[in-house]
Amino acid sequence: MSTNNQMQPQVEQKPKTLFGKTLALFFKIIGLLAISLFFSLILEYIGLVFWWPEEGWQHSQRMFQQELSWLSNDFKQSLLMSSPGHFISLVIEQVFDWVMIKTGLLELTQTAQIKAQGKGSSAFIASIYVVAEDFILASVFIVMTFIIRFSILVLSIPLFIMAALTAVVDGLIRRDIRKFGAGRESSFIYHRAKKLIVPMIVAPWFLYLSAPIAVYPQLILIPCAISLGIAILVTITTFKKYL
């Protein structure tokens, strides 16, 4: 059995093209966003049952309003667009108008208690809505909060690029100093620091998008950008002197 397996020709995997790598990266980003949204919804549902049952869906509403105020007040200028906070706030208002008003969800929220006391199919639907109201409205506000946080992360990309470029330049200088100064090699530090680069890129997206409470974005973005810069700096500094 083993000889037959050994005699089978091995299929060589062709290297991915630039388009293939770009497509794979796109699906990885979509997967990361989907997982982050899933965890944020699950944490909110758990909170509705165990952590803030008295607040109900209003917890997610207050979180949404707080995140929206931070976006409007702190992101007035950006390298990516002019007046990003105002523009994204208008988009969020349009999404809220479509989801809550045009779908009739807001009207149902206001009249569900009265309709549930009647008879017929509409009363049955209203009674089901009354039971699941906290989870339905919380889902709506969590999704809109997710959109706000995603927008903030996109606007913060230049921060991470600046941290990475600064670390690259500083790391190359330190490597040259080590190279011409007979510095010691340390493959252990190099490989450990290299493995931290991707987690430091992914961490702010997952942590910030999944946070079950309102978090001031700078408390996550700045430490993660600094950590990314340090990981790149150490990686380049400890890269082997001779290729």
Helix content: over 70%
Low-confidence stretches: none
Q: Any idea what the shape is?
A: elongated
Strand content: under 5%
Distance between the termini: 43 Å
What structural category do the secondary elements indicate?
Answer: mainly alpha
H/E element order:
HHHHHHHHHH
Number of helices: 10
Largest sheet: none
Average of per-residue pLDDT values = 79
Number of strands: 0
- Rounded to an integer in angstroms, the radius of gyration calculated over CA atoms is 25 Å
Relevant terms:
mainly alpha, 243 residues, 10 helices
Structure in words:
With 243 residues, this protein is mainly alpha-helical. It has ten helices and no strands. It has helices at residues 2-7, 18-51, 58-74, 84-102, 105-115, 121-155, 157-180, 187-195, 197-210, 218-237. The two termini are 43 Å apart. The model has no long low-confidence stretch (mean pLDDT 79).
In short:
The protein has helices spanning 2-7, 18-51, 58-74, 84-102, 105-115, 121-155, 157-180, 187-195, 197-210, 218-237. It is mainly α.
Question: How would you summarize the topology of this molecule?
Answer:
Blueprint lengths: L1 H6 L10 H34 L6 H17 L9 H19 L2 H11 L5 H35 L1 H24 L6 H9 L1 H14 L7 H20 L6
Helix pairs in contact: 2-6, 2-9, 3-4, 3-6, 4-6, 5-6, 6-9, 7-10, 8-10, 9-10
